[in-house]
Amino acid sequence: MKNTFATYVVACLSVLLWASISPLRAADGVYERKAQQAYEYFLAGQGDSLRTMMNSEMLEAVPAESLNDMYGQLEKQFGKLQERGKWTTQTAEGMTVCQADMRFERFRLRFQVTFDSDGLIAGLFVKPAPDAPSSAAVLDRKRGEECEVTLVSGSFRLPGTLTLPRCAADGERKVPCVILVHGSGPQDRDETYGPNKPFRDLAWWLAGLDIATLRYDKRTKVYGKDYLPDGREADYDVETVDDALAAVAFAQACPQVDADSVYVLGHSLGGMLAPRVAARAPEVAGIILLAAPARPFEDLLVEQSEYLLGLAPSEAGRKQVDYLKTQVANVKRLGTDAFCDTIALPLGLPRSYWDCALKYKPMDEAARLRLPVLVLQGERDYQVTMHDFGLWRMGLMRNRNVSFKSYPKLNHLLQEGVGMATPFEYQQALPVPAYVADDIALFVRTGNLR
After folding, report:
1. 397 exposure class (CB count in 10 Å sphere: 0-12, 13-18, 19+)
2. Rg (CA), the chain
3. Which end of the chain is more exposed for a tag (fewer CB within 10 A), N or C?
């Protein structure tokens, strides 16, 4: 049914800019009333009236005739409308999104309308309503406990959390431990994004499966601009790898942990760097690459920016993407006479960082490993896509120690949903589903998913 509907959605047109997400703000009911008016025009098949509420980009994109009979077509396909849910509102970057679910006889759809800063419709969606989220992870004190720890990495001290299954906390037996390594940016130990804490979710799920975890605040989160050691320049090692190695050593020294069963799970950038960690820590029992880029970091920046621009076409956005492409092209000229010192480098990161990024080949590093490797990927992820997953499969197909699995419903934060994700999802409290932890636990116990 969903596939049939996907071919129909003329209304899935959007001119939103998702560059960054701000906290939700109250709309004082103004936008809900506008959304209700748009909804009533939609039900009545009054495309001309609906177009009076649209901005110029939407007027160009959506002719009145495509709106007039849309509701009638939905009724033919899904039966009579039974009820409409309550309006919810989110605000980001001057855009306000109002949405409400529609329950038809045979299907649930979501009516979503987006208003620009002038109060005009900048996007209109009618799409499948997502399923109810999976149950959230809960740390049952009868099954496990957490303790605050301090991870020492060189001259840096990073606060962290060791989550132990009850059997290990009570000293009954030693258990495997998974080190959780963050993605890019100044992440905390839970990888908190909006109301979501994916690393905490994984830690709590795994504790119930008799597996310990160690997670810690990232150095760039704790120390900010002072994260560089004396005499070192910014690169992947300073940002991530050195501290992950310290975490491995810490876990191995824990009396509750089986020192021969310490695993590294890296998410996003952390996943891309997990092979680099394992290459420098041969005592690691295995690695898990979760939404890990297989392509150069700078290429992903361009792809993500173009995807977001596609959600919100604008001349200003196009100029920003074009300038980013200029910066990325210059990054690729590092070390050659064609490199231009007057062009700023992407994200404001220094030359040493991009030089490291260019030299690091995650696929080659992973292919040399002989320890078990698990590659996991959300199929709805727009930041690290199924193209990367395919590259990992192709590049590691000869390695019998590697297992692969993708999840149709998951996005980059391991949230369930329908269709390609957008950053607004990250502001919804959608926990990591238990089945991800089940697969990780199976891999830790057996070295594969079979």
Report:
1. exposed
2. 24
3. C
| 8 Å CB contact between 151 and 216 | yes
For residue 294, give both structure tokens. Answer: 């297989």
Beta strand 121-128 with 13-14 is antiparallel
360-382 pLDDT, tens digit each: 999 999 999 999 999 999 999 99
Q: Is 252 helix (H, G, I), strand (E, B) or coil?
A: helix
Instruction: Specify the amino acid at residue 99.
Output: Q
What is the torsional sign of CA 424, 427, 431, 436? positive
| Mean pLDDT in residue range 295-312 | 89
pTM to 2 decimals? 0.77
Answer yes or no: is pLDDT of 26 > 70. no
User: Would you state the pLDDT for residue 311?
Assistant: 73
Please say if the pLDDT value at position 426 is more than 80: yes
Task: Give the integer Cα–Cα distance in Å for 88 and 427.
Answer: 13
The strand pairing partners of 267, in sequence order, are 290
Q: Which amino acid is at 35?
A: A
Q: What is the pLDDT of residues 323-335, one digit of tens each?
A: 999 999 999 999 9
Distances (CA, A) of 94 to 114, 119, 367: 10, 10, 46
Assigned token pair, 311? 């959600």
Using CA atoms, how far apart are residues 105 and 253, in angstroms rounded to an integer?
A: 59
Residues across the chain: 450
Q: Which helix (H) or strand (E) element contains residue 20? A: none
pLDDT band at 248 (very low <50, low <70, confident <90, very high): very high
Q: Which is nearest to 109 in space by CA: 74, 76, 133?
A: 74
**Calpha distance 365→65 (Å, rounded):** 55
DSSP 189-242: TT--BTTB-HHHHHHHHHHTTT-EEEEE--HHHHHGGG-SPTT---SHIIIIIH
Question: What mean pLDDT is predicted for residues 246-274?
Answer: 98
In the numeric block, the tokens 């404001």 are attached to 348
Conformation bin of residue 67: beta by default, left when phi > 0, alpha when psi is -120 to 50:
alpha
- The tokens describing 350, both together, are 């220094």
The sheet that has 212-216: what strands, in order across it?
Answer: 144-153, 156-165, 212-216, 175-181, 257-267, 286-290, 373-378, 402-407
Whether the CA torsion 344, 350, 351, 354 is positive or negative: it is: negative
